[in-house]
Amino acid sequence: MDIQFSKELLKQVDVVVKTILDKKFTSLKYPKDFDIEDYVILGLFDGIVSRFDSILYLAEADKLFGIEAIARGILEAHAYLIYILEKDKDIVKRSKAYFYSVKKKELDIYQGIIAEDAKSIELRRFLNISKEKFIEEFEDKVNEMHEKFTEYVGKKRKNWYQSEKGNNNFRELCESLGLGEEHYLLFKLFSTETHAKDGGKQFAFEEADEKISSIYIIEKNIEHVITYSSLTLIELTRKLYKYYGLDREKKLFNQKIEFKYKFKGVIKLKGNY
């Protein structure tokens, strides 16, 4: 994919969150309360846009190592957003499950601080707070957070997106959403571990030339990373405008993409958009 296309696309998607906020949350014509699901949906999308910006910057600067790790972050947010938006009736519940699964990290920090091991004692000394005072200040908030986590995620689930049908891990989630190939490419073929350990074997390089093979793999496939990221943002922009009922904005977005790029052959507009 032409990197110029991606840079122009970045300009289009960089205003999506602001457009939604202006149209749906500040306009008197379309008043809507900003709830947890909006925080999650728009936050995940904005994170993808930021990562995409970083990938393009690094690619243009010819600093290719590390791009695949950023792309894996895009895939994670992509899968989470598709899963959250998959069924209208589940959007709020799934958004809250994601939100409180992230918040659970705060519970883990809390438990670490109030523990009685040497590390926790030293940490409280560093924070200049007693265990009793720390519990007094944060216990109510922690208990409330724990209740919300139990309500929306559950006690026995390994992850927030696990269901009775599966999704026991991120690979299964990707496969259930039709993102199995992307998971393989970004978590297997493009992974740093693969570069370091298996690059020479896959491309028949000598062991001494594994560094060369690593560079070859990244340079050969960086275009695929940019293409995947671009198509992901196009897909998600359409989905967000549709979800928020911004049909005019979605139509204008499609027109801009088609008008500017269809004759370059860099993208085909397919699907019921």
- Please state the CA-atom Rg, rounded to the nearest Å: 22 Å
Helix content: over 70%
Overall body shape: globular
The largest sheet, given as strand count, sense and whether it forms a barrel, is: none
End-to-end gap: 21 Å
On the 0 to 100 scale, the average pLDDT is 81
Strand content: under 5%
Number of E-state strands? 0
Q: SSE order in H/E notation? A: HHHHHHHHHHHH
The helix-and-strand class reads mainly alpha
Number of helices: 12
| Poorly predicted runs of 5 or more residues | 192-214, 263-273
Question: In summary, what is this structure?
Answer:
Helix content is 73%, strand content 0%. By secondary structure, it is mostly helical. Helix 1 runs parallel beside helix 11, helix 4 crosses helix 5 (91-114) and helix 4 (67-85) packs parallel to helix 11.
Protein model, in words:
With 273 residues, the chain is mainly alpha-helical. The protein is 73% helix and 0% strand. Helix 4 crosses helix 5. The protein starts with a helix and ends in a 12-residue tail after the last helix. The C terminus is likely disordered.
Write the layout of secondary structure elements.
Layout: H1 3-13, H2 16-26, H3 36-60, H4 67-85, H5 91-114, H6 118-127, H7 131-152, H8 170-176, H9 180-189, H10 192-202, H11 210-243, H12 247-261
Helix pairs in contact: 1-3, 1-11, 3-4, 3-5, 3-11, 4-5, 4-9, 4-11, 5-7, 8-9, 10-11, 11-12
